[in-house]
Amino acid sequence: MPQRTDIHKVLIIGSGPIIIGQACEFDYSGTQACKALKKLGYEIVLVNSNPATIMTDPETADVTYIEPLNVERLEEIIAKERPDALLPNLGGQSGLNLCAELNKAGILDKYHVKVIGVQVDAIERGEDRIEFKHAMDKLGIEMARSEVAYSVEEALAIADKLDYPVVLRPAYTMGGAGGGLVYNKEELKTVCARGLQASLVGQVLVEESILGWEELELEVVRDKDNNMITVCFIENIDPLGVHTGDSFCAAPMLTISEECQKRLQEQAYKIVESVEVIGGTNVQFAHDPVTDRIIVIEINPRTSRSSALASKATGFPIALVSAMLATGLTLKDISCGKYGTLDKYVPDGDYVVIKFARWAFEKFKGVEDKLGTQMRAVGEVMSIGKNYKEAFQKAIRSLETGRYGLGHAKNYNTMTKEELLHLLINPTSDRHFIMYEAIRKGATTEEIFNLTKVKTYFIEQMRELVEEEEEILKSKGHLPADALLIQAKKDGFSDKYLSQLLEIPEEEIRNHRISLGVEEAWEGVHVSGTKDSAYYYSTYNAKDKNPVSEAKPKIMILGGGPNRIGQGIEFDYCCVHAALALKKLGFETIIVNCNPETVSTDYDTSDKLYFEPLTLEDVLSIYKKEKPLGVIAQFGGQTPLNLAAELEKNGVKILGTAPAVIDLAEDRDLFRAMMEKLDIPMPESGMATTVDEALEIANKIGYPVMVRPSYVLGGRGMEVVYDDESMVGYMAAAVGVTPDRPILIDRFLNHATECEADAISDGTHAFVPAVMEHIELAGVHSGDSACILPSVHISPENVATIKEYTRKIAEEMHVRGLMNMQYAIENGKVYVLEANPRASRTVPLVSKVCNIRMVPLATDIITSELTGRPSPVPELKEQKIPYYGVKEAVFPFNMFPEVDPVLGPEMRSTGEVLGLSESYGEAFFKAQEAASLKLPLEGTVLISVNKKDKPEVVDVAKRFHEDGFKIIATGKTCDLLNESGIPAEKVKKLYEGRPNILDMITNGKIDLVVNSPAGKESVHDDSYLRKAAIKAKIPYMTTIAAAKATAEGIGYVKAHMEENNRVKSLQQMHSEIQ
Asked: How many CB atoms lie within 10 A of CB 402?
């Protein structure tokens, strides 16, 4: 093996928090790289700020740093660890940009760090728009006609030459951030100004529009001897104009000729060779079906979202192989059971893979559901089928949007053909559902093609599905003819969707098709570079080729499905740890999941992976085939829990906490009765199904009240209501309220500290590692609030009470496994808000900070009825943790400039970061820095708060004044500060004339904004202030609690600037716990 011997210690940079455009596919690639390099005997140092990842577990790398990802922090780590090499192309755009910055600052040379996997100048050739264009011209490869602008004036001049519409693309950004398609001069001015700001180097490319062309991607892997293979050909079914992250895609290419694919491959190889990347590269092309022109759009010299998809679609583990190639191995050195060695690999699967994105528009009021060149999706699903129709329909039911087929979405089937065609003019997240109804209403293929530019093949396939559905609808009320049912199953119609169409129970359809011998069969996808590993997908169009082993007892884990706001990587983290723990306990593990970005869908996380939708039909089929001893549903978030009761009815054994207990926690009346029995206080509350009931309850409890629907995750539809009028409005807008799904109304605890506790319970004992204190007050969703672990401001008596209540509740409910409790403390009294008897979002956080393996412990308890092992809970001891962790949420507001970035009871963050330090102030400071809102140590702070916060604002201002800040304030806030002896300058609000706050923010005169929203009672909207802060990248605090923490953090960091505190690794911190 000609592996490099001049390097021993490798530094890997992670991608930081999950944001739109950069999700858990980088946890997957980073974790794979660590596996590969460890196996080859290298020592690994890993840096990442995201605690919810597998890669930041202390076992994954040799040394782990959970630190902000910026040049200063990395220099400290490099100086301390002295790595020989840096592998930057696994941490997404963040990792690449950081590597380029470290190189520019001379830090890599200073400490003699070599960059492996990709040359630093290759990053520039791939990312810098001018460099890339020069490289392409040399190779004679065509690009879209374009020129670079460094100012709005230059951009206007270029656009006149190219003719509108034009596309603007800022350099060194990702997910299409800051760019966009513009049709006129005014739009260009706005978008260009935004783009210049978003770009690392203040450079924006203005290029001709290639809207409506086919968008095609190749995933290429190259080694140091210049051997190249194409892992996957991906065809975007949505044409250019929709960002690839939002596009609906197929692999292999279904409508592109062999000849065209060859030309693409030749060009891709030329490009990858000239850029000299070692490992995976994603190359994006545009092809004009009319003139047959091919142009290259861009390359990503790194593992990307597409490479995670390509890996899972073909079974070729790109990140794993890339890491091996970076150390000097070649494709010929890696053996493979199917091809001999990897240099002989060709993508030759006889199946179709579909990727469909998952969006979160409903979370952001005022955002138009419209897709363009800026990515909007928060997650994705992948499905595998024998043909396009089967794979397509499987993808739809994998999404978990409550739709099990393409028809009858929203109210589209009540609209006329004209109305539907009008809706197709702009691409939206519902585009394909609207097309389906338009076809039903008689739209021709040509009409749809002209509006959407989706190729006729795909429209025709959809037309056949519509015709088949119309045929099925003729049998409403009873089973259709056998031949029709068999055909429907082959074309991917799910049992559930058929039951909705025919209005008969799903069970009846399932039993009938089984009696006809129509059952799911499974085929394997071979994993390249292994002898005979494979993972499996179901189909109704083939014979079963799925060997079942009987060697060990089996347990099935249900995954979390697509990422979305409220259910993300944290649940995948739990599933992965459960699988690893079960292996150690001697079980064969089976994972069912459909998210291509995750570690759980990596072929060797479990003993057997089923890449399948998480629906009753698919899970029951697998259960019947594999006959496991039981199924674990408590680790995948809401997804598997929604299935648990149905599975149990069908004879599936659910291990751990019983589904009935989970329902009990959701049923407010039953839960309240239990709290009364245990003598534990809760805020007064009630349940309502009508407006009158709601008003009666609200008046009895007293406003303000918190209202929300039952059975939701991530605070969907939660609001704080202040008066009768708003209550009537809320009830009118509430969707799907039925007697068994009422609206829950609670007294809103004003100025209460919210906190939560995670517990591990065996049904008779429970252990609470630590209590987390939320920095934001009650009323901000727990997933969005910054929180401190262990708590700082909660009295020891209250902490003891919280731990005692948690134990009592866990024991009373017989929770077996994990549980999460939410509390609020109002005037020194602890109230229970809710109980979640399952793994929660905070499990990875508590595990990392407290150095306790929560999931393996829970897995041990859940399986003890099968293993007979004693419970580990009585052995767990309270620990003294000598440092603090502050979790800060990361929001996608920069992608949604029209949204007011105020925090409320509905969750809107996409990811999180962690700051660790011996001082709570510094930990908060580091968490803000990791969320890329670096707090200023001096300068000007603007303070403008609402009536409710006036009493507390003086304390905060005093802290800032003592820290040496200049204070600017508005109207009454300013008067109050001056009266209290704090010097503050008055500034005008937007409606009070010029120069006003907005002018000051825009001119960069302000370094920090403290602004609590005026809310409903104010005549003037003040959201412009917070939106302006985001645009100008100024740290902003929308709650007094966060402002206090900010002042404390800045004060601490300033006071201790001299003591050069060395960075500590996670492993070192854990060794200091007593």
From this structure: 7
